[in-house]
Amino acid sequence: MNKIGFNVLAWTAAVSDDLFPVIDRLKTIGYDGVEFYLGAPDLSAYQRMGKYTSDAGLETTAVMTLGADENPISDSSEVRAKALDKIKWGVDRAHALNAKVICGPFHSAHTVFVNRPAEEREYALAGEVLNAAAEYAKEANIVFALEALNRFECYLCNTAEQLTKLVKAADHPNVRAMFDTHHANIEEKSYGTALETLSPVLAHVHISENDRGTPGDGQVLWDSAFSGLAKINYQGWLTIEAFSRNDPDFANAIGVWREFSDPWDIAEKGYNFIREMSLKHGLG
User: Fold this and answer.
1) DSSP helix/strand/coil, 3
2) What does the domain layout of the chain look like in residue ranges?
3) Counting Cβ atoms within 10 Å, is residue 253 exposed (0-12), middle (13-18) or buried (19+)?
4) How far is Cα 52 from Cα 20, in angstroms, rounded to an integer?
5) What is a single Pfam family found in this protein's UniProt entry (predicted)?
6) Which fold, 4-281?
């Protein structure tokens, strides 16, 4: 069985001791791991969380994003240098969490657009920054799992084909790809085709409903997604990523204007849903 994780962004973007009761309950439900957003500045909070999750018998993964002032595809070499520094900053915090995967769209700045399609030179610029960052991450045995986002959040990588191009541009064994069912629901023609494209470099999967609520309650073609994962013999994490307005600052930053599902409804029903669909399709 693939390991099943839950991203605590359903509650908060913070990493703090306040999450300890959430961690305990996720463990009780049956989760194998917990995913955290790399945004909080206090390194000691990540260290405490890393110890707490380890003592609870849970593994961790991490997710991060970058802003306009730290954009790997900026024309400014100074901004690209800040991007490299910020990714290294994230590696330090992921290492403190004992995480071996950092996923997310940190190939470019989130929701920053230039009113044109992506250019080849931008893939090259991103690849250069990511290659250097991956050399740093290699020392901590951390793999980058880059994410394709929908067209409303990113212009560099919307599809599996573009994401594969980016991974090739980075040209480093620690730079790989992830698959998110929410974004693929918008951008891909076929889950199966997208997963076959990503198969050689796929390192992480987000299980996310079309409305960011409880997996299985919406319109995502889950049979297609799970059968596609089984066909490529995917062996990595299946991590639920869902959002709420529990953390208003984070919700406002990503355009979450209403509640989709109660976080514990997502966690409890979502876990059972992943187990059922994995069994149905022979995944894991």
Assistant:
1) coil
2) 4-281
3) middle
4) 8
5) AP_endonuc_2
6) TIM Barrel (3.20.20)
